[in-house]
Amino acid sequence: MTSKQRAWLKGLAMNLDPILQIGKSGVTPELTDAVSEALEARELVKLSILKGCLDDHMAVAQTLAERTRSELVQVIGNKIVLYRPAREEEKRKIVLP
Predict the structure, then answer these.
(1) pLDDT score at 93
(2) Is residue 90's pLDDT more than 90?
(3) CA distances (Å), 48 to each of 19, 56, 58, 60, in order?
(4) Domain range list for the chain
(5) Which CATH architecture has domain 3-85?
(6) Cα(17)–Cα(42) distance, integer angstroms
(7) 1: how many CB neighbours lie within 10 A of its CB?
(8) Torsions phi, psi of 13, nearest 5?
(9) Residue 73: what pLDDT?
(10) What is the rounded (10 degree) CA torsion for 11, 14, 19, 22?
(11) What is the pTM for the complete model shown?
């Protein structure tokens, strides 16, 4: 992913509300499955890390990106943005510039 594409996705993510929260249990298989399903439906998701999560935010983001096979767009404070295009071309909602 190029820096221009990443910047464009950051702009799209500004208007998104976090759809999932990561708590003190950290990255569980259930959370990974939920994030993967959300990525399949939306392609671009924003997640929120709660104060109870003791793990490093960047480590949590990288772990989720690896396990869901998605691209880490950004980590700002306690927010994570992930992107994964739909598997089928005709179902893609976001077309990168």
Answers:
(1) 81
(2) no
(3) 8, 13, 12, 11
(4) 3-85
(5) 2-Layer Sandwich (3.30)
(6) 12
(7) 12
(8) -75, -20
(9) 95
(10) 100
(11) 0.91
